[in-house]
């Protein structure tokens, strides 16, 4: 962690993960998955987060993650069912599916101790592969969200009411993938523009 200025906070981390005999999908059809062990896998990456107090209850937050997840050893898998014997080679160096290589988050908010608060958020992710042979991929995406809330603390009671709109521009994108789906229905659509309203309370002693 570093503190380049009194009102700025940043955290940086590097990571390296080696795995032996990782469990991977062999077939996936109609919600029924069969798994097997692959050989060695490796994940290298970094995480960076940065927060800046801008004054007058304003703050900005940025976060970024990079991860290079790949197979170290070749192995065999299936592309169709039934598949009594795995017969398709997954090459060493292929990317592990369902993992975005890059993802980012940004937030600018106004948050006084009490009263109204508001914020603008943005999230983005790069493409993700949907199969082990890296032939299908869900494109990257970027979406924005808005939120507003109100905080009150009468006596020992702390109240917070909020409302938010996610995916403001109603982007269509894949929120997740079904890895190695043999009928080629890999992609699961994320929600479109949506709204959420809620409230919470806490009693302090």
Write the layout of secondary structure elements.
Blueprint: E1 2-5, E2 8-19, E3 23-29, E4 32-37, E5 41-55, E6 58-71, E7 75-77, E8 88-90, E9 102-110, E10 115-125, E11 128-129, E12 137-138, E13 141-152, E14 157-166, E15 174-177, E16 187-189, E17 194-203
Antiparallel strand pairs: 1-2, 2-5, 3-4, 5-6, 6-9, 7-8, 9-10, 10-13, 11-12, 13-14, 14-17, 15-16
Q: What does this protein look like?
A:
This protein is mainly β and 205 residues long. The chain has a domain at 2-15 and 45-66 and 97-203. The chain has strands spanning 2-5, 8-19, 23-29, 32-37, 41-55, 58-71, 75-77, 88-90, 102-110, 115-125, 128-129, 137-138, 141-152, 157-166, 174-177, 187-189, 194-203. Strands 1-2-5-6-9-10-13-14-17 form a nine-stranded antiparallel sheet, with no helix packed on it. The two termini are 34 Å apart.
End-to-end Cα distance, whole Å, is: 34 Å
The count of strands amounts to: 17
- Low-pLDDT runs: 1-5
- DSSP helix count? 0
What share of the residues does DSSP label as strand, in percent?
Answer: over 45%
Order of helices and strands: EEEEEEEEEEEEEEEEE
What percent of the residues sit in helical stretches (DSSP H or I)?
under 10%
């Amino acid at each position: 962690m570093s503190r380049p200025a009194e009102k700025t906070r940043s955290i940086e981390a590097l990571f390296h993960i080696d795995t032996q005999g990782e469990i991977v999908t062999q077939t996936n059809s109609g919600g029924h998955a069969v798994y097997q062990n692959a050989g060695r896998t490796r994940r290298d990456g970094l995480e960076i987060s940065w927060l800046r107090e801008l004054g007058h209850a304003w703050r900005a937050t940025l976060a970024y993650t990079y991860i290079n997840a790949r197979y170290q050893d070749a192995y065999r898998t299936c592309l169709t069912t039934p598949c009594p014997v795995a017969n398709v080679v997954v090459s060493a160096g292929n990317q592990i599916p369902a993992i975005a290589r890059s993802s980012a988050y940004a937030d600018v908010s106004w948050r006084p101790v009490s009263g109204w608060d508001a914020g603008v958020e943005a999230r983005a992710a790069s493409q993700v592969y949907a199969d082990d042979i890296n032939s299908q991929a869900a494109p990257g995406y970027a979406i924005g969200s808005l939120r507003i809330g109100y905080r009150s603390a009468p006596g020992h009671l702390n109240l917070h009411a909020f409302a938010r709109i996610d995916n403001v521009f109603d982007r269509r994108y894949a929120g997740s993938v079904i890895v190695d789906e043999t009928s080629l229905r890999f992609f699961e659509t994320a929600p479109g523009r949506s709204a959420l309203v809620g409230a919470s309370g806490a009693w302090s002693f």
